[in-house]
Amino acid sequence: MTEFGGLGGVAGGRPRDNEDLFECAVEACMGDKLREDESWGRALWGSLANVDWVHENGDTASYSFRAAGDLIAAIVGKGDYMDWYCSAPYYGECYPHIREAMATQGWRPVDC
């Protein structure tokens, strides 16, 4: 079992982490949508910040406010965590389209 996530907050941004299976799942199921429509990024931030996720194989992922923004900026390929920090009206609330997209990759939110 592997734990993904972290504290994040890399000023100036960072490249996408191909070793992070959660990050790869986000890229696979909604990378293009994130790059085309900012509303997907805002919904993803609200669905990641302070939410625990679990994969069907037992892996887990958890992101702080900064780390959630960091992940989105890395997938979008520009900016940094501050571009997404507190970008959703709510945090810790899983948006249905995010939940459905991540389910295609075997991930589900815990208690959300």
Describe, in plain words, how this protein is organized in 3D.
With 112 residues, the protein is α+β, with helices and mostly antiparallel strands. It has one domain. 42% of the residues lie in helices and 13% in strands. Helix 1 packs antiparallel against helix 2, helix 1 crosses helix 3 (65-76) and helix 2 packs antiparallel against helix 3 (65-76). It starts with a strand and ends with a strand. The model has no long low-confidence stretch (mean pLDDT 92).
Task: Record keyword descriptors for this entry.
alpha+beta, 112 residues, four-stranded mixed beta sheet
Strand content: 5-15%
Class inferred from helices and paired strands: alpha+beta
Query: How helical, in percent, are the residues?
Result: 40-55%
Mean pLDDT, as a whole number? 92
How are helices and strands ordered from N to C?
EHHEEHHE
**Radius of gyration, whole Å:** 12 Å
Give the count of helical stretches.
4
Instruction: Count the E strands.
Output: 4
Shape: globular
Separation, N- and C-terminal Cα atoms: 21 Å
Task: Indicate the low-confidence ranges by residue numbers.
Answer: none
Q: Structurally, how many domains make up the residues?
A: 1
User: Biggest sheet: strands side by side, in what order?
Assistant: 1-3-2-4
Query: What can be said about the biggest beta sheet?
Result: 4 strands, mixed
How would you summarize what this structure contains?
It contains 4 helices and 4 strands. With 112 residues, the protein is an alpha+beta fold.
